[in-house]
Amino acid sequence: MNNKVILALLFCFLLVASNEMQVGEAKVCQRRSKTWSGPCIHTDNCNRQCMNREDARSGACHKSGFGAACFCYFNC
């Protein structure tokens, strides 16, 4: 067989194989921080505390009731 034909067949095989592969995305769950106290004003501080103290993926301030609370995000 010609090298160009082999290369073309290999390329087609790779295209088909890449379309068949499923990408697994981790689901993210949120919960109110268990270590944060007081209102959450700076998301950066909440994010740092969630990652350092609660082994979370990230954290952010969100409106909760009349103020804002720190919420941490974890892989479900």
Automatic annotation (TrEMBL):
Domain (Knottins-like) ranges: 28-76
Cell compartment(s), UniProt: Secreted
Gene3D superfamilies: Knottin, scorpion toxin-like
Keyword set, alphabetical order: Disulfide bond, Secreted, Signal
InterPro entries membership: Defensin_plant (IPR008176), Knottins (IPR003614), Scorpion_toxin-like_sf (IPR036574)
Protein name: Defensin-like protein 1
Pfam family, one: Gamma-thionin
GO cellular component: extracellular region
Main location: secreted
UniProt signal peptide: 1-18
Organism in which the protein naturally occurs: Capsicum baccatum (Peruvian pepper)
PROSITE patterns: GAMMA_THIONIN
Gene Ontology biological process terms in this record: defense response
PANTHER family in the record: DEFENSIN-LIKE PROTEIN 1, DEFENSIN-LIKE PROTEIN 19
